[in-house]
Design goal:
alpha/beta
Amino acid sequence: MAIYTARYGNKTLRGEGYYPVGISIGTPKFPLGYELREQCYALAPKGFMLKMEYEPYCEAYFKKLEDIGTDKIIGIVQRLDRKAQEEGKSLVLLCFEDIRKPEQWCHRTLFAEWWHRKTGEVIEELEEAEPLKQPKKAAMSAEEETNTQITLF
């Protein structure tokens, strides 16, 4: 069973071979370049969680999964994976955050961690088609350049 996680904006998903399923509260308003096959709210966080810091968020998200039940969640994911396999594709669980950015984290990685603990199976992050864009440094104005002096003493 090949299951991945990714962000909606990952352009790798525009290629063949993927069965994209949203696991977020909402769906993107921007064009994806691929068809979102399903939305699985059972794996989405609850709205109140979105304002939480990392540690309490983890606790609340894992509690949500436990409240649903391990067997039920495994059944949901297996059903999605069967649909993907019937089409010769890999299941990809999606949400918004670009976790390549150091300040970003996301519930999809928490789900992958939970899944590994419960099943022993690893869910990897789908490789990105494009490198992470580095923020552009603000250009110094001509006046700032003129006023900037290098001194040795």
